[in-house]
Amino acid sequence: MRTPKFSVLLIVKNAFPIVVGTLDSLKAQTYRNFDVVVVDGASTDGTLAVLHETAKELPLHIVSEPDRSLADGFAKALGRAAGDIVGMLCADERYYPNTLEQVVKWFEAEPNAVMCGGKVDFIDEHDQVIGSHLTAPFNLPAHLACELVPSNLSSFFNRRRIGNDFRFDAEVPTCPDYEYWARLGFRFPLPAFKRYDVSVAQAYRTRDSMSYRAESFTQFCRDKLTHLNNVLARECGGGNVERLRWRSSAGIHLWAAEQLSGIEPGHPDILAHCAAAARYDRSYDRVARFVATIANARYDATSGIVRRVVPGPRTAAVAPYGWSMPPSYWAGAAVLGYDPLTVQTARAPWGYSLQMSLPDRMHIGERSNGGQYWARIDLEVVEGRVGISMGAPSQNLFGEKVVAQAAGRATAMIPLTPDIDPATPVMIRSGGRPSSVLRVYQGELLYDPDSDAVAAIELGQ
Asked: I need a labelling partner for 162 at 20 to 30 A (CA). Which of 179, 243, 401, 460 fits?
């Protein structure tokens, strides 16, 4: 592939103005032998006007019509791709200026590769890089169980080598890439998938992206399970298929729990997905490992039951929490009022904003055998979203609960594990939303002399 033709697929719907950055990244490419297949889901904002204006500078092939889903849009685009190498973009994603040039070099070195890819950088609403992800080398069982999730954005496909398998299943609304990668994994050997530790793309990590919305994961799981069953029915036979199905189904739910814990720690669906995973495969050690990281949960691998720790009837207040003014280096954090305590969080998406501590010289006493301490904060998020957790700024945070404006007046309850000092301060920070505003009505340390008060987690809770 000395001078291969690229087709870049761009799927959009009502994406103005964010799509402007995506199109600008294509205009800036140093490698110019490419076209752009745009499938627009009948946008009603300024998206189509921007696309037609950009078509004066770039070879855009625009199809605008209603579609059933994102999967339907991608299926249409794949069917129209004519390039030797194909990349895939959504409106909240973009390439670096040398991305296509870099990919050409990879395919020159590996002309028989099915896929060559790099890593993706995540950016916030201020276009600042806040993290990077390099997908692990492709492995089919790990993919089916969502132990690794290949990045479509940072992957480029050899269309001619893939042939008739270069397609998406449009009958399932979301996660068509899960089925697509599985199909490729059944057909091609592992060395045909190449991954390099080089950044080739950026993606927004905000609620503008469907993959960063907690409410999306119920459907993601449902659709991935459908894809799994479909691909196993077509591609896999023999005595091990059911074992593969149960382990992969458990892995799909664990993936959802893991993703949710990064997006919105403390979201109730996290434990529900853990419970669902255990119902599929209670011996999957990934369930036990993950539940062990959650402050208010326990897992019994023998029974396969996930339980939520709850305060018992003898729980009582031990001491109130006081608070201190935020230091100046917590940029943007400020106390706006005192009755009730009203706080503006830091300007950083997850910036420290307020510390609440027990009174000086407060003696907690020895933790009784089986006893359980809790931190309870009564608050209301007036604007944005905040995180409530235990720990000092120089330490790892523990048991974070994220509370959004939509929750109204709420109570954050954080159970302290035996290795957490009850005198550890409570930390309040921006919950992914800079300069949020909250009211704190009360904070206190509770003690429950019983440690076996639990509530079973059922599907749908």
From this structure: 243
Beta strands in 321-365 (DSSP E): 322-324, 334-338, 341-344, 352-357
Determine the angle formed by the axes of helices 47-54 and 19-27, rounding to 10 degrees.
10
pLDDT in tens, 190-199: 999 999 999 9
**303 and 379 co-located in one domain:** no
pLDDT bin (cut points 50, 70, 90) of residue 354 is: very high
- Strands 352-357, 322-324: pairing kind: antiparallel
Q: Cβ contacts of residue 260 below 8 Å, gap of 6+?
A: 214, 217, 267, 269, 270, 273
Q: Alpha carbon of 249 to those of 183, 222, 415: distances in Å?
A: 17, 10, 30
CB-based burial, 82-107: b 16+ in 10 Å, e otherwise: ebbbbbbbbbbbbbbeebbebbbebb
Q: What is the DSSP string of 233-253?
A: HHH--STTHHHHHHHHHHHHH
| Domain housing 424 | 316-448
Note the pLDDT of residue 240.
Answer: 82
188 backbone dihedrals φ, ψ, rounded to 5°: -110, 150
Q: Do 437 and 381 belong to one domain?
A: yes
| Of residues 90, 121, 85, 88, the one with CA closest to residue 102 | 85
Give the C-alpha separation, 359 to 341, whole Å. 17
pLDDT tens figures, 395-406: 678 888 889 898
- Residue 459, pLDDT > 50, answer no
Which of 166, 153, 265 is closest to 203 using CA atoms? 153
Is residue 454 situated within a structural domain? no
Q: What is the mean pLDDT of residues 65-87?
A: 88
Cα gap 144→244, rounded to integer Å: 8
Same-domain status, 341 and 429: yes
Tens of pLDDT along 243-299? 999 999 999 999 999 998 877 777 878 988 999 999 999 999 999 999 888 877 888
pTM for the whole structure: 0.77
Q: What is the DSSP string of 224-235?
A: HHHHHHHHHHHH
Q: Which of 124-128, 335-339, 347-351 has the lowest mean pLDDT?
A: 124-128
Q: What is the CATH number of the domain that holds 418?
A: 2.60.120.260
What Rg do the C-alpha atoms of the chain give, in angstroms? 25
Q: What share of the chain is helix, strand, coil (3-state, %, to 5)?
A: 30, 30, 40
Pairing of strands 193-204, 115-123: parallel
